Amino acid sequence: MSHSSRRQFLTTSAAATSVLTFGRRAPAFLQQAAADSQSDGRILVVVEMAGGNDGLNTVVPYTDDEYRKARPELAIGKSDVLKINDNLGLHPVMTGFADLLEAGHLSIIQGVGYDNPNRSHFESMDIWHTCQRKDENRIDGWLGRYLQEAGQATSSDPAGLHLGEDKQPFALMSRDARVPSIRSLDQFRLNGNETAAFRKAVRELADARRDGGNDLLSFVQSSTSSAITASERIEVAGMNYKPSGEYPSTALANKLQTVAKLINSGLTTPVYYVRIDGFDTHAQQDGAHQSLLRQVSDGVSTFLKDMMAHGHGDRILCLCFSEFGRRVAENASKGTDHGTAGPVFLTGTHVKAGLIGQHPSLRDLQDGDLKHHTDFRQVYATVLERWLKCDSKAILRGKFNPLNALPPT
């Protein structure tokens, strides 16, 4: 190992290329400083709706007879939807999103997908995360590449944070920008060894003069020192924070409240990532889908309103996406199977509120699925260029035109 470079180690070691997850006994370790790009303190919060969200029962074409023919059991009633316009409405449980829409803080991007769609959860999610197909060399994700391009700041705060017990998203993977995965604020600390003397000793060891040109050891030592500083800040992040309103009692809302605490504490971290699972609704979809949409709608709206109340509203953009939509026709189990195109949501005070693009036609299908008209990488280009203020071409592995969901910078 004495002759291994840090880059070689990160490339060849599965332990290193898999960004560390911090549990009850593990220290905060091997993280890079936050990205200090030209984003002016702006923050991106990604909400992954894993499993394939049924877009047709999320943004409902309630006046379309083809919709009712295809879904005799699952169709949402005309009188129940939260109307967006004379043809489309939100699912009736999405009152939080309806409030954001009325306030001008919700952009609904319709018909999002990609060419030659893949209906495998794992492959489709990898495509969304990396912007590459399986026959290409996928070593990092689109957000990891952004953090890499943004560069290393002087701050010891993490470049990004993933909150949750699930596996870290491929989207955050990078060669050099280290992104911690944490379960809760209480677990992101040096548990059991918290004395000032211990911290001082570790810092002195990490900052000690090093000889011999061992790049890997230097990386570990410097990262450990900055990780301790970040750990200390995160430990006290919530001490002076009080939510402006009550968050829902759901796992997703708990994660978003943790993000709110960290932002309010002054962390310079520009990217946060959370996930809600369960959208693979093959059977008895109605009740499960209602619960999931309510969790996303209420959680995100509460979070954004909380951030606005704390003076951070203009810094926040939330991106809510799923790996694919569902098929137009319901199945025999009162559910829906894997489909293709679906809606993506952007929330924040800067978004262009309302519908972006046309709702996919239910009369012009491809193998029983909706045809997409907006490439998901156009959504990413919008976020990267118009929110995070960086060139998206290298990050997305191609040129994709931004949408008008956000104003040009």
UniProtKB/TrEMBL annotation:
Provenance organism: Fuerstiella marisgermanici
Pfam families noted in UniProt: DUF1501
PANTHER family found in the cross-reference section: BLL7424 PROTEIN, DUF1501 DOMAIN-CONTAINING PROTEIN
Origin organism lineage: Bacteria, Pseudomonadati, Planctomycetota, Planctomycetia, Planctomycetales
Protein name stated in the entry: DUF1501 domain-containing protein
InterPro entries reported for this sequence: DUF1501, TAT_signal
Domain of life of the organism encoding this protein: Bacteria
